[in-house]
Design a protein that fits this description.
By secondary structure, the protein is α/β, with parallel strands linked by helices. The protein has helices at about 10-25, 40-45, 50-55, 60-70, 85-95, 115-120; strands spanning about 1-5, 25-35, 75-80, 100-105. The protein has one domain (about 1-130): NAD(P)-binding Rossmann-like Domain (Rossmann fold).
């Protein structure tokens, strides 16, 4: 089983990821990260996932980042608000682990920082992570 962490696990996209992961034969939830629901059971936010996750609780961001650092290889999904994903991605990539990172926000949809700023009205939070051609 491949470990998976979901940052932003209490939002709509995060909840759908948890549902899909519960059914996937190759992945195992290693952490459901939520700043607002840390310590509470996943089923308290998503009752339909009680059977899948039992008493598994959400963890805070710091605990989620520690979990990433402690894993050799993992899959990390960022289902965070735009702007926040880029900052968390920088921290995760700095762990220098074998992390497969999937960002579901708009933070990395543009290759040029100027495109991001034009679209969002503020500078990109981590332009060094953007790929320029």
């Amino acid at each position: 089983m491949k470990p998976v962490l979901v940052f932003g696990a209490t939002g709509y996209v995060g909840g759908e990821l948890l549902r899909l992961l519960a059914l996937h034969p190759e992945f195992e939830l290693a952490g459901a990260v939520s700043g607002s629901q840390a310590g509470k059971p996943v089923a308290s936010v998503f009752p339909h996932l009680l059977t899948a996750y039992g008493s598994t609780c959400f963890v805070g961001a710091e605990e989620g980042l520690r979990a990433v650092a402690g894993l050799g290889e993992a899959f990390v999904f960022l289902a965070l608000p735009h702007g926040e994903s880029a900052r968390v991605a920088r921290e995760i990539l700095a762990t220098d682990k074998n992390i497969h990172l999937v960002d579901l926000s708009a933070d990395f949809r543009f290759q040029e920082p100027t495109q991001y700023e034009k679209m969002h009205g503020h500078p990109h939070p981590t332009p060094e992570l953007l790929r320029s051609e």
